[in-house]
Design a protein that fits this description.
Blueprint (H helix, E strand, L loop, with lengths): L10 E2 L2 E6 L2 E8 L5 H13 L2 H5 L4 E3 L2 E3 L7 H4 L9 E5 L1 E2 L4 E2 L9 H9 L8 E5 L14 H9 L3 E4 L3 E3 L5 E3 L7 E4 L9
Parallel strand pairs: 5-6, 6-9, 9-10
Antiparallel strand pairs: 1-11, 2-3, 4-5, 7-8, 10-13, 11-12
Length: 196
């Protein structure tokens, strides 16, 4: 769809954005930017989770994939309407450059843990992955792997992800960046030599 057509009730992955047809109203409830170190601070708690306990968390089946937004999050319903992309398995949840929020608005999962969950999902047949999670495809300033590139390396498949905030309309159409100036970036597995 046309990213410049701003329908009512546009929501994005990190905050709630109120919108009207003629333009954006005041932004409310914007979460603070996720720092590169935020995931690292939570890493010990992430590793304590077993795959069994993680898989019991609330997920919703998408047309071809799954989402893991918190129960009260409006994106749980909106992402169900996103049309699948041929050859791709969709994963939708809150995200940042360094981690995703599995069943949470807070970043709580590493690429390696998500890769294990995807591999053990009964519907996953080795397809490429489309991450519908904010900024998971945004390059890291220090040249290290962003979340999507690390996930591609862990799974051995291409991973497509947004390089900015992902906005999802009520009808399931979406765009990247507040004014549609972002894009979905594709990472191939081990495209760059493994970083030390």
């Amino acid at each position: 769809g046309d990213p410049n057509a701003k329908p009512a009730n546009v929501y994005n992955c990190r905050c709630t954005m109120a919108a009207v047809v003629k333009g954006f109203k005041k932004v409310e409830n914007v979460a603070e930017p996720v720092s590169v170190n935020r995931f690292k601070e939570k890493a010990p708690n992430i590793m304590a989770d077993s795959l069994t306990s993680i898989e019991k968390r609330s997920t919703i089946k998408l047309q071809h994939g799954f989402s893991a937004f918190p129960d009260e999050d409006i994106l749980r319903e909106r992402t169900k309407k996103i049309l699948p992309k041929k050859g791709y398995f969709d994963i939708a949840m809150h995200g940042s450059q360094t981690g995703v929020g599995f069943g949470s608005q807070e970043i709580n999962m590493s690429p390696r843990t998500l890769a294990n969950i995807i591999k053990h999902n009964a519907d996953y047949k080795g397809e490429n992955i489309r991450l519908l999670s904010c900024s998971t495809g945004k390059n890291m300033p220090d040249g290290s792997y962003c979340f999507a590139e690390d996930l591609a390396n862990n799974l051995g498949v291409k991973v497509e992800a947004p390089d900015d905030i992902l906005y999802v309309r009520e009808d399931g159409s979406f765009y990247v960046g507040m004014f549609g100036n972002g894009q979905m970036i594709t990472y191939k597995p081990n495209e760059r030599r493994r970083l030390k």
